Amino acid sequence: MLKKPNILCCGGGLQLLNHPCLSSPPRSRAFPSQSRYSARRYATASHNPETDLSWPSSPTFTPYELFKQDRTAPYSKTRYYEMVKIYHPDRPCSGHPLCRDLTPEVRLQRYHILVAAHEILSDPSRRAAYDFSGAGWNLHPYETPIPSWARTGSSNYGPIYANATWEDWERWNNRHQGKQQTLVDHRTFATFVILLTLMGGALQASWISKLSSGYEDRLWELNQESSRLLKGRRENTQHQMQSVDARVQHFLIRRDPSGCGLKEEEQPVYKQVLHSQKSSDDSSAEVVGSERQDGRVLQDSVQAESSS
């Protein structure tokens, strides 16, 4: 019966004057200021590094750097809980040296970063994915060394199960061959090709201009030569057409330029035309001769009368 009041006194805090539990007052009440100071003691960088809760000074850091956690060591939630007490937006800062100069927005952002880092390191699968490719850590650039074969544009080959593109398979197939040496820089080669194209275009333009000018000169010479030829033929024709024989000769030349003669069916036609022309010429000649003779007779008679 006496043990129950003892339990109630010690556990429930009943202040009985004659209870042995209150015979010796607790030491914490003797120095209230010291107990309050010990309860409100804050961890800063000057204390033990294990209790250092300061935020990383680098703008880009990893979850390991945030919790000061070794990569090969198992994850401990102690620092996470302590830092959540500082940066949780629902907890008052109460003049804490690590949060009293921070705005509520910055505290909320840091709290989200703490939660993201905790979720990565507390889950073995997510931690392995982060160590492999930095998956899940999007708030800051990933600075953990990435395998050389996993980097963009790398010439090193990785495990065969990591091949996803044709470039990966090409590196895998050429893994035993030496690295190809780049004789000329790609930019230099591209610049050379562009300059060569411009020079070729300039030469082509000059050649086309010369060709067009030469064609125009040749055309002008042909026109001049044709004009001289036509002018000479016209002058020769006008000069030769002054007599009847020249006209006949010109007609015959045009009619038979090869000089092979007339065809069988053309001979009677030409004989008839030429015979009629010859008879008309003979009659006209006889008329002219008779007229000349009559003129002479008349002239002789006139001379005889004048002499008598």
UniProtKB/TrEMBL annotation:
<dbReference type="InterPro" id="IPR001623">
    <property type="entry name" value="DnaJ_domain"/>
</dbReference>
<feature type="domain" description="J">
    <location>
        <begin position="59"/>
        <end position="134"/>
    </location>
</feature>
<dbReference type="InterPro" id="IPR050817">
    <property type="entry name" value="DjlA_DnaK_co-chaperone"/>
</dbReference>
<dbReference type="InterPro" id="IPR036869">
    <property type="entry name" value="J_dom_sf"/>
</dbReference>
<feature type="region of interest" description="Disordered">
    <location>
        <begin position="272"/>
        <end position="308"/>
    </location>
</feature>
<dbReference type="InterPro" id="IPR018253">
    <property type="entry name" value="DnaJ_domain_CS"/>
</dbReference>
<protein>
    <submittedName>
        <fullName>Hsp40 co-chaperone Jid1</fullName>
    </submittedName>
</protein>
